[in-house]
Amino acid sequence: MTFTPEQLRKQAQEMLRQAEQLEKSGVTKDAIRRDMVPALRELMQAKHRAQKAVDELVDCVAELETKVGKFEKLVQEVLR
């Protein structure tokens, strides 16, 4: 893909305009990262807590199924 000098100039001017806007607003990659890192940490901690809760639920359901199975066998033996 080839560009004309005018297209390249226009693109460069737009990039400069965007860079100036970022400088004026004070938004930098470091500032964004500084704000995102704690949010990402909180998100990952919430995910971990949810996963632990799901794992515990699965374990409890498995234990419940085992105990129900034993109880069913006991009931069948008593009713014979």
What's the domain count?
1
End-to-end Cα distance: 85 Å
The portion of residues assigned to helices is over 70%
**Helix-strand pattern:** HH
Describe the structure.
This protein is mainly α and 80 residues long. The protein has one domain. Helix content is 90%, strand content 0%. The chain is built from 2 helices and no strands. The chain has helices spanning 5-25, 29-79. The longest helix is centred in the C-terminal third of the chain and has 51 residues, at 29-79. The protein is rod-shaped. 0% of the residues are buried. The model has no long low-confidence stretch (mean pLDDT 90). This is Bacteriophage protein.
Task: Outline the secondary-structure elements.
Elements lengths: L4 H21 L3 H51 L1
Key structural traits:
single chain, 80 residues, 90% helix, mainly alpha
In short:
The chain is an all-alpha fold. The chain has one domain.
